[in-house]
Each structure stands twice: as structure tokens, then as C-alpha cells.
Amino acid sequence: MTTPPQMPPHHTPPLTESRKTRYTRATLQDALMELLARKPLAKISVKELCARADVNRSTFYAHYANTEDLLGDIERSTLDWVGETLATVNRATMADDQEAIRQVLEQVCAYIRSNHNHLQVLMSPQADLGFQQDLIGLIYGFSGFRGVGQVDEDDADEDASMRFHFAVSGSIGLIQYWLSTDLAASSASVASTIYTMSVPSLAPALPRDPSRTR
Hints:
By secondary structure, this protein is mostly helical. Helices cover 64% and strands 0% of the residues. The protein has 2 domains: 19-64, Arc Repressor Mutant, subunit A (Orthogonal Bundle), CATH 1.10.10; 71-201. The chain is built from 11 helices and no strands. Helix 6 packs across helix 11 (187-201). The model is unreliable at 1-9, 146-153 and 203-214 (pLDDT under 50). InterPro entries: Homeodomain-like_sf, HTH-type_Tx_Regulator, HTH_TetR, TetR_C_Firmicutes.
């Protein structure tokens, strides 16, 4: 199994950015992660962030519009790196090989362990649920989870969607719990649990009761 690349601790900038610009962005991102570990984003001011990063506010505004913009930059970077990690796996194989799906989940859990400082903040219950759903949805999308268990035409729009969202929510909760234990369980164990819980929830629905109405 291929070892997933570690996410750099900071957003990967365009090659045209200077070393000073990269350093400034990295410093601001680190400072925001440190503050988010203690308080929600709404309670973090640009003034406090700049003091933490030892950067003046004019420099901050040269790079970001506000703290939400900075957090969005970090989240996009995380999603990009997860996508690059998953892209190393043959998607055509995953569509028919459930063991490959398990391996992808194990790669992702190993990735979380390698980058837990940022992800412990980004995946916390107080963090952006939309980002967390995007992250897990990206994983399942690459893994072919939407194709695990065929559903009939009537199920496709309603039941399959509910099962998919149930799997995503459960996976987020388990990852949050794992991070809260300081990653006590192994990556393989967490991946196996997610797999075992998620695949049945995405399996075909039982035959529909003809009397059931929508």
C-alpha cells in the first residue's frame, strides 16, 4: 500500500510567490490554528491574530480579506492534498474491489495521523461542518462508496442519498472521537471501523413496502 504524502503544514502557494510571502502566509496560518484550538473563529479578531503571528495588520490584509478568508485558504489546501493522496489509487479498480476501498480509508487515516495538529482543529465539533462534510464526501467519492451496493431507480434519489449522508456523518463523528483520544487507536483500526460501519449503510435498501407513500 502506498504511503500517503504528508500535507505541508501550510497552504501551498503559487510558484510566483516570494519566500517572504510564503513565510508570512505560513505564519498567519499557524497562528490561526493555534487560536482556533482555544476559541471559535467568530471570537478571533484580526488584531489578535496579527499579534499572535507578529505580523502587522496591513500585511495581513495584503494577503487575506478577513479571518474567514484565511481559514478558507487552509481548508482548500487540505482538500487539495487529500485529493492528491487519493488520486494515487486506481479509481477503476476501486469501483469493483471493496478491499481497495478499505485501503484508501487506511491511507486517509494515516494521513490524518501524520497531520493531526491542523486536522485536530479542522475536524473538531466546533469547526466548520461544511468543510468536514466536503472532506469525507471527497474521500467517499474517490473511493467509489457511492457505487457500493446498487440501488434501484426509486431508491436513487431518496434512500441512497440518506444512506450516503448517514455514512458521512458517522465517519465525521468517529474521526472526531479518534482525534479526541490523541489518536489512541491505530490508523488501520479506525479505517476498518469506518469501512465496516459505512458499507452496510450504503448497501441496497430492503424491498420497498408497496403501501409506503412518499
